């Protein structure tokens, strides 16, 4: 079983990966590509995607096995990631 910290880290990794895809004009990422990029087991990736989808940050097409087939950021997810990017930029300017 994963710890709370690991679950949060997994969710952040999924969001960052999808936001990077948006930056490269890819609106959707296959579940297998996401799994390979992040190195997460199916169970952990599915849990992260379920949580983020329930929060309205991502959209997921599921396989019949309950794993992500295709994943994309929603408008809310993009706005959240843009806000975080702006905050990180402001923090760097202060340093």
Describe this structure in words.
The structure is a single chain. By secondary structure, the chain is an alpha+beta fold. It is 64% helix and 14% strand. It is built from four helices and three strands, in the order H-E-H-H-E-E-H. The protein has a three-stranded antiparallel sheet. Strand 2 (58-62) and strand 3 form a beta hairpin. Helix 1 crosses helix 3 (42-54). The termini are far apart. The model has no long low-confidence stretch (mean pLDDT 94).
* Shape summary: globular
Strand order of the largest sheet: 1-3-2
State the helix count.
4
- Largest beta-sheet characterization: 3 strands, antiparallel
Helix % is: 55-70%
Assembly state: single chain
Distance between the termini: 39 Å
Beta-strand percentage range: 5-15%
User: Which structural category fits the helices and strands?
Assistant: alpha+beta
User: Mean pLDDT, rounded to whole units?
Assistant: 94
Radius of gyration: 14 Å
Q: List how many beta strands DSSP finds.
A: 3
What's the order of the H and E elements? HEHHEEH
Low-confidence stretches: none
List the helices and strands and how they pair.
Layout: H1 4-23, E1 29-30, H2 31-38, H3 42-54, E2 58-62, E3 68-73, H4 75-94
Antiparallel strand pairs: 1-3, 2-3
Brief summary:
With 95 residues, the chain is α+β, with helices and mostly antiparallel strands. It has four helices and three strands, in the order H-E-H-H-E-E-H. 64% of the residues lie in helices and 14% in strands.
């Amino acid at each position: 079983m994963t710890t709370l910290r690991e679950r949060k880290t997994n969710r952040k990794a999924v969001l960052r990966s999808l936001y990077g895809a948006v930056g490269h004009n890819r609106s959707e990422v296959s579940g297998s590509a996401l799994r390979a990029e992040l190195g997460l087991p199916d169970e952990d990736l599915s849990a992260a995607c379920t949580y983020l989808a329930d929060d309205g940050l991502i959209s997921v097409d599921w396989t019949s096995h309950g794993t992500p087939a295709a994943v994309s950021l929603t408008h809310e997810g993009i706005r959240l990631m843009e806000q975080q990017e702006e905050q990180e930029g402001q923090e760097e300017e202060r340093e």
